[in-house]
Every structure is written in structure tokens, then in C-alpha cells.
Design a protein that fits this description.
An 8-stranded mixed sheet has the order 1-2-6-7-10-11-13-12. Helix 3 packs parallel to helix 6. It has 8 helices and 16 strands. A hairpin with a 2-residue loop joins strand 1 and strand 2. By secondary structure, it is an alpha/beta fold. 24% of the residues lie in helices and 24% in strands.
């Protein structure tokens, strides 16, 4: 009954109150957030009924939400339309608010960055797919980054969706391994300034940052923030400077799921919850990650973030769940009294 009340309130009040300093505000208190990435629109969409069983207050796409892989925007739109018209996904849309950010395949080109020729039109198609309100300031900016705040008082969650494609510098490969770009950018200066403004003096009790690519992992040879070490360090320094309460990261891309932890001097523990592989996974992966504090999940999965507001400092539990909804590892508990 409470779930239905929240959804009715969402509908009647349009729940999102637009504000100049914030893209979108909502009074809904988040207790369950479901997340996922790497979703082929033509593949069987078997996970959505299991997502709904977790009773989420919000769904967050973490990239490769479709596999567009084209510079023809009619092709990209048709693939978004196919996903949006999938009956199982439409059932989720009826019941759960949806937000998200892209990675490369929905951006339009594998591993692409700022050089992608259709990035402006592609961004607009992503926002249309996500139903980003036309009044949102996000439409007026370049790139796809967005800010959302849910709840009020001491039960407020701020979600910052970072665009790691539109402004990202070039990457070269040597022997099939990316060469680190020591001076290039991931976010671009305008997005960096926006992010600092969003974190400075924020009164949210929980801060969730997200991008398509992993933030903490630094050993595998694929795309990751560590390919731009100066940018990775800049975000860590920003955490120290702004001290956002209970901050952690979400990522997709890898066709595996895992939870990594990094001790940041001057800030504390920082986590990256990678939830990836909704319709296909990297089943043979044995990759190392010395920061991993969970199992390496190589089967298809989605993630759930559970928030317990009963303590003075909220407790956050991260769960990795399979296509039948089963827990694939014990939850990793963040913050609170832990």
C-alpha cells in the first residue's frame, strides 16, 4: 500500500520540482534502488520481472542501455524504441521512475570519446529515452551529465550521473592494451566545475556518483578511469575537498559484477559497485582486482542498493542478484555502524 501511495504521489505531483541549482528534486524517500547495464535490446529481457520483485523506488541505467553502435541516428532511435516498447521493460516503466547515463555502445561507437561525430544528436536521443523532463537544466548543457536529489531532511540522497564519453580525451592501444593518457580529460572542465558545485556544501545524507566505466579498478586492460590517472586522482581530491557524506560510486560496462573498496586519505572508504551484464556476461572472466571486497560475478545480473534510515547514520547494503532474483553473494554493507 505504501508503494502504491508513493507512485500515486509521483503521478499527481509530477514529483520532480525543478530548481535552478538542481536538475531535479523529488520528495520520495529512497529505500531500494535497482541498477544495471549492458542490455541488448534484441535479447530476451528476462531480468525485469525479478527487478520488480525487489520493489525498487528507482531504476538507474549505468550504460550500454542499448547496443546502438551506429553513426546513423535513425538506427539509434529505432533501437531505443525497441527497448522502450519491450513488454517487460514497459511494466517497469509503469511502476518505477527511471534515470540513467550512457556508456559507449548507446553513445554510438565502441570505446568512443569526444571525437564521436554524432554525440550531440545521440545525447538528445538518450534524454528522450530516459524521459528527462524538457524543463530540466540538463537539456541546456553539453553532454549527458545529470543531478537528482530524492527525499528531504536527514533522508536525502543526491545522485550525480557523470558523462564519461562526450568530453573524454583520446585513448591509444599498444599490444591491445590501452596506453594511459596522462594529460587528457574524462569529464571536461565544464562538467568538473558542475560536479564540484554539486558536492560543495551538499546537505544530502548519501551521495551516489555514477559513470559507465569503472572508477576504482586499476588492473584490467579495458576502459576505466585509471586510463586517465590525473582525472581519477582529481575526483579523489574532490572528495577530500568537499567531504560529501556517505559517498560511493556506481559503474557498468564490464559484463561482470563486483564491489571494490578504496581507502582515500583524508576522506575514508570509497566504494565502486559495478553491476553489469543484464542480457550477456563475461562468463570466462578470471580477472584480478586487489580492491575487490565481493565475489567476482560472471553471470548475468543486476544490482540492488538497500538503504536503512533507522539509524542516525544510514546503512547502505549492496546486493548482486541473478536472473532468477537470487543473491549471488552476501551483501556488502556500507556506512552506518559498520
Amino acid at each position: 500500500m505504501m508503494r502504491r501511495f508513493l507512485l500515486i504521489g509521483y503521478s499527481l505531483c509530477s514529483i520532480f520540482a525543478l530548481a535552478s541549482a538542481q536538475d531535479i528534486n523529488s520528495q520520495v524517500v529512497l529505500q531500494n534502488i535497482a541498477i544495471g547495464s549492458c542490455n541488448r535490446q534484441e535479447a530476451p529481457q528476462v531480468i525485469w520481472p525479478e527487478v520488480l520483485k525487489t520493489n525498487p523506488d528507482l531504476w538507474i541505467w549505468l550504460g550500454d542501455n542499448i547496443y546502438g553502435d551506429s553513426e546513423d541516428m535513425d538506427v539509434i532511435k529505432a533501437k531505443y524504441d525497441k527497448q522502450k516498447n519491450n513488454s517487460a521493460y514497459r511494466e517497469l516503466l509503469k511502476q518505477v521512475p527511471v534515470i540513467g547515463i550512457w556508456d559507449d555502445h548507446d553513445y554510438g561507437k565502441n570505446d568512443a570519446g569526444q571525437e564521436f561525430s554524432q554525440k550531440v544528436a545521440s545525447r538528445d536521443l538518450m534524454f528522450d529515452f530516459l524521459d528527462v523532463p524538457k524543463q530540466s537544466p540538463a537539456w541546456e548543457r553539453k553532454g549527458g551529465y545529470q543531478s537528482y536529489t530524492y527525499g528531504s531532511g536527514n533522508k536525502k540522497v543526491k545522485i550525480l550521473l557523470l558523462d564519461a564519453r562526450y568530453f573524454r580525451g583520446n585513448l591509444d592501444k599498444k599490444d591491445r592494451i590501452y596506453v594511459k593518457n596522462l594529460e587528457g580529460t574524462v569529464l571536461g572542465e565544464e562538467q568538473w566545475q558542475w560536479l564540484e558545485n554539486e558536492l560543495t556544501n551538499s546537505d544530502a545524507a548519501i551521495h551516489i556518483l555514477a559513470s559507465g566505466i569503472q572508477f576504482i579498478a586499476d588492473q584490467h586492460p579495458f576502459e576505466k578511469w585509471d586510463n586517465f590517472p590525473k582525472e581519477r586522482q582529481r575526483l579523489l581530491d574532490l572528495l577530500v575537498k568537499t567531504q560529501p557524506k556517505n559517498a560511493f560510486f556506481l559503474s557498468g560496462d564490464r559484463h561482470i559484477s563486483e564491489i571494490a573498496q578504496l581507502d582515500v586519505p583524508g576522506y575514508g572508504r570509497f566504494y565502486d559497485f559495478t553491476s553489469s551484464g543484464m542480457t550477456h556476461s563475461y562468463s570466462s572472466s578470471t580477472e584480478s582486482n586487489t580492491h575487490r571486497v565481493s565475489k567476482l560475478i560472471t553471470e548475468k545480473s543486476f544490482g540492488v542498493i538497500k538503504i536503512d534510515w533507522s539509524k542516525p547514520n544510514p546503512i547502505v547494503a549492496l546486493e548482486m542478484r541473478g536472473v532468477n532474483g537470487e543473491l549471488l553473494d552476501k551483501p556488502v554493507v556500507l556506512f552506518g555502524d559498520n
